[in-house]
Amino acid sequence: MLKGKTAIVTGSTSGIGLGIAKALAAEGANVVVNSFTDTAGDHAIAEDIAKAHDVTAKYVKADMSKEEECRALVEAAAEIGPVQILVNNAGIQHVAKVEEFPAEKWHQIIAINLSSAFFTIAAAVPGMREAGWGRIVNIASAHGLTASPYKSAYVSAKHGILGLTKTVALELAEAGVTCNAICPGYVHTPLVDGQIEDQMKVHGKDRETVIREVILERQPTKEFVKVSDVAAMTVFLCSDAAAQITGVPLSIDGGWTAM
Length: 259
Hints:
Layout: E1 6-9, H1 15-26, E2 30-35, H2 40-53, E3 57-61, H3 67-77, E4 83-88, H4 103-131, E5 134-139, H5 152-171, E6 177-184, H6 190-203, H7 207-215, H8 227-237, E7 249-252
Parallel strand pairs: 1-2, 1-4, 2-3, 4-5, 5-6, 6-7
């Protein structure tokens, strides 16, 4: 379905990003994998994707908190082929009361979770316009649609991602390029596993109780969103079947935002 197209997935050496990169490669897309490190393991991830799916895959280091590196990532990806799919997935989190929230954490979260998407989109759009085809998918969050306490920077950034998504969609509406956002609830990733362990210690409860009563308190299904769920939605949004879906926040949250 996506054979020969080049895709960038930011923050894609683990978790949701890696799942999306693999799913796009399975559909024939050449994939650029990204993180802020530059280890043999990072490059091995790209090599494994290439071998598994018979595509071209490349690892490109880029610190998504820096404008010049965001733009350089798009330029490096273009060495494989014109960038026609861009998935902005990179993100970080910090939890604190608003009056105690460290300024450096605020700036870092806004830079990585929001500004990086602006810079990569700005760099990729000219090529998409020229090709007359493109797909931009921004990985937002249920927190792009609703809020939780102690997450002021994260919630602000994810709300901002939805505004950016809608604006870009309108600007590219006649260019054959769509821009959408996926808003997952809690996804079962290694990062969340660490949160479960921490919460077990804090609450003195077993794993299943913590998952149900603490982590998934706001997800009515009481089930995690799977990485494969987000990856499948991304693939769909990149397909021709989704050509008239643009500027939309799509929830995968077990009913969280229905409440």
